[in-house]
């Protein structure tokens, strides 16, 4: 195993864990509250369920290395939405009243990396679907 592959796995697992926790908290804290927050931003509340589901299941998928490119694209779209609908007015570092979008921007960059990167040899996708060429 080379260092680049190890770095890719660490980055993928951390990104997956962060999104898993965010999705879990949305359900644990009452998804209705999250739906209400979405409504207050002018976003249809039902999308809270979609976002929480993608974060929860997508986080697990990233940790395992299943569908990394597709999951990362969905998570990148969520981050773009979060930045432009909820975080942008507060600025990069926040304004004392609301959090900034620096974390969202970092998560967006990580997700985009996995959309563009080659598949990892250290993923469940690779183990299940990689055929050795003789």
Automatic annotation (TrEMBL):
Keyword Disulfide bond: no
Signal peptide coordinates: none
Species of the source: Bacillus thermotolerans
Record keyword Membrane present: yes
Record keywords: Cell membrane, Membrane, Transmembrane, Transmembrane helix
Protein name stated in the entry: Membrane protein
Compartmental location: Cell membrane
UniProt family annotation: Belongs to the DoxX family.
GO CC annotation terms, alphabetical: plasma membrane
Domain of life, per lineage: Bacteria
């Amino acid at each position: 195993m080379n260092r680049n592959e190890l770095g890719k796995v660490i980055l993928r697992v951390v990104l997956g864990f962060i999104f898993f926790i965010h999705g879990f908290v949305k359900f644990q804290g009452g998804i209705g509250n999250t739906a209400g927050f979405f409504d207050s931003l002018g976003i249809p509340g039902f999308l809270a369920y979609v976002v929480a589901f993608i974060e929860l299941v997508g986080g697990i998928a990233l940790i395992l290395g299943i569908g990394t490119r597709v999951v990362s694209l969905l998570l990148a779209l969520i981050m773009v939405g979060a930045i432009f609908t909820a975080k942008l007015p507060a600025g990069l570092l926040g304004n004392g009243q609301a959090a900034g979008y620096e974390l969202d921007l970092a998560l967006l960059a990580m997700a985009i990396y996995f959309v563009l990167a080659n598949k990892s040899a250290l993923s469940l996708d690779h183990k299940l679907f990689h055929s050795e060429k003789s």
